[in-house]
Give the backbone structure.
Amino acid sequence: MKKILVTRKLLEENNKRITSIFDVKLNTSDTLYNPEEILKLSEGCDGILSFTTTPFNRDMIMKLPESIKIISNYAVGYGNIDVVAAKERGIVVTNTPEVLTDATADISILLLLGASRRAYEGRKDAEKEKWLWSTDYLIGKQMTGKKLGILGMGRIGRAVAKRARAFDMEIHYHNRNQLDSSLEEGAIYHKDIKELFKNSEFLSINCPGSKDTENLINEETIQYFPDGAVIANAARGEVIDDEAMIKAMQSGKIFALGLDVYRGEPKINKKYLELNNLFLLPHLGSATTRTRIAMGDRAIDNLEAFLNKNQNPKDQVN
Ligand code: DGY
């Protein structure tokens, strides 16, 4: 049996399956291993099932035992892994696309609604029992019929668009390349990101985290948005320049922000916490039981194809 190191806890359904196929070092206590522990534990293993919380930078990849041939990441994003270094070392890297599309798109909509309808302030007032229904109490912004920009029209972005159509929103998007019209379904493409932002009364960020997308929302680009825009980020924290965003939220240029992801999470820029126009979640994009089981299955499928069936894994990214 091939040997696998699993760096964080898996759900029981996934534990059952992986232990029936591989000789596995599980992490049932969910300890956050440091790099030295990962290197030690991976000795004698053929593959690693890793998570977004397990960083594999170049140095780490170069130090991995020769026996490691695959890192199967339990996430659609793989910014935690230096995939170029892995390729140089001949290590295959895989991710888990498709299975978390719906759950993450739901969270994008929740962020847009939570931010635009002032859910954070509402919750605080309701808890204190210090509010009185009134015609102009906690007035928010309504999504119906508005322009929604989608930054990153991959599977998740398209699933957000599908949900937004139910709000009669006009969909605009930016991607490196324009999609086929069958995938666009009437959404309007903007090659130039400034044009997307100009057309974003609401913006949903659904692009991958990478050097190309880091700080795409910054002091300069925020100025392109219509005044009082609402932004939601369910992708990666690094896409937003936090200082610039905080200033824009203080001035009202940005009416409200919904965040599920953070630069250096779980840390958060403390200035955000002084703002009422912020709706926060702790990286819950894929957090439903069926999605998490499906992610585990997909990560195990990739290990099984590569190590046991001698096939190219379906989700190889390098
Ligand atoms: C992903 O899959 O990249 C998510 O952020 C993990 O929940």
Remarks:
- The pocket of (2R)-2,3-dihydroxypropanoic acid is lined by residues 52, 75-77, 100, 285-286 (CB under 6 Å).
- The CA atoms of residues 123 and 129 lie 10 Å apart.
- The chain has two domains: 3-99+289-308, 101-280.
- DSSP finds twelve helices and twelve strands in the chain.
